[in-house]
Amino acid sequence: MAGIYIHIPFCQQACYYCDFYFSTSQKLTDPVIDAICKELSLRKKYTGDEKISTIYLGGGTPSLLKPAYITRLLDAVYAYYNVITGPEVTIEANPEDISRTKLNTWEKAGINRLSLGVQSFDNKVLAYMNRVHNAGKALASLDMIRTSAFKNVNVDLIYGVLPGSHKRWEKDLEILLKYRPVHISAYNLTIEENTVFGRWARRGKLQVPDDDFSAEEYEILVSMLEHEGYLHYEISNFCLPGYESQHNSAYWKNKYYLGVGPAAHSFNHKSRQYNVSNNALYVRAIADNKIPATIEPLTRENQINDYILTSLRTMWGTSFHTIKEKWGYDLLQSNRSLIERLKAGGMCRIDAGKIVLTEKGFLLADKIASGLFVNS
Ligand code: SF4
């Protein structure tokens, strides 16, 4: 099974923390959508014999698009790929774009999962991050979604935004839990260089909470969501039983995916590919029947390390057997003393031939993963 990711590179305005590729000018919408449909036809061999089980419209802001574009993109996927019956089809949406008309047309187009970028219910936090919507709009969009056909709904939140007290974050979670979405993704604010926050930080103008403050917000998050019956299945992802994101789980489980559109990434075990992050260059290359992608071949060591990095972030953990069978490498034998120390420190457990991080270990997952990496 494989997934298809479609990157929609347009946003109404730039959030100050965001370093995804997007343009706030929508004048290239028509040519970009045409080019994505054509890229889908040009790359139909990429997924080989694998059937497509998930389709994900991300960005950028796919909910900005007129529904007719969404229908065209999905039609192109069905025309060129072998899609299973009943795939998971997700659209990322922002609160300001939610309307009855859009919800109905998305549903008719075959979308069955909605991922809503709320980020916060606090007007000060939303304005500070330069989000388009305010708290009232976030609540109104959730009310509308609640009475629509969409039941498989994710809500994104961001924590660790402003120093001070944890009251704001607790309130955000309390409000969200009243809606009880089946899936919640919560991310720690990270300051990326090429963003407004990155520039403010370089000039010493950004007030950022320290790591301890963010770690406390993470602990509040885990404890409140687990108390409400959510399963913590990936560092930043929680769901009610049976509602894991199939598309994102495939990334974490090292499965194939094809990414189309400007800046989209693809992965097929042998290489990663990165499409050019520029709408005009992308459109021009596709018009010439060329895929404007940089290809990074993956060595055996890259493949093992990728698997360790992604799988360790999940409740399924990293399987010693998988690594031995696929790459002939004995992770346990090669790292026995480190793994014993992690176990003694309450960072991990060994469970059915897997190393699985505890909540304490999740906080240091990237550091632990790099300690386990195979050196080339
Ligand atoms: S966070 Fe989302 S809406 Fe904001 S600029 Fe980035 S992609 Fe666009």
Query: Termini, distance in Å?
Result: 30 Å
> Class by helix and strand content?
alpha/beta
**Inertia-based shape:** globular
User: What's the CATH first level of the largest domain?
Assistant: Alpha Beta
**Discrete helix count:** 16
Strand order of the largest sheet: 7-8-6-5-4-3-2-1-9
The CATH topology name of the largest domain reads TIM Barrel
The average pLDDT value, as a whole number, equals 96
Poorly predicted sequence stretches spanning 5 or more consecutive residues: none
Question: Bound compounds, please?
Answer: iron/sulfur cluster
The oligomerization state is single chain
**Helix content estimate:** 40-55%
Largest sheet: 9 strands, mixed
Beta-strand residue percentage: 15-25%
The radius of gyration computed from the alpha-carbon positions, rounded to a whole number of angstroms, is 21 Å
Q: Provide the CATH architecture of the largest domain.
A: Alpha-Beta Barrel
Quickly count the domains: 2
CATH superfamily of the largest domain: Aldolase class I
What can you see in these coordinates?
By secondary structure, the protein is α/β, with parallel strands linked by helices. It has two domains: 2-252, Alpha-Beta Barrel (TIM Barrel); 318-372, no CATH class. It is built from 16 helices and 15 strands. The protein has a nine-stranded mixed β-sheet, with helices on both faces. A three-stranded antiparallel β-sheet has the order 10-11-12, with no helix packed on it. α1 packs across α10 (279-287). The longest helix is centred in the middle third of the chain and has 17 residues, at 211-227. Residues 11, 14-15, 18, 20, 22, 59-61, 94, 117 line the site of iron/sulfur cluster (SF4).
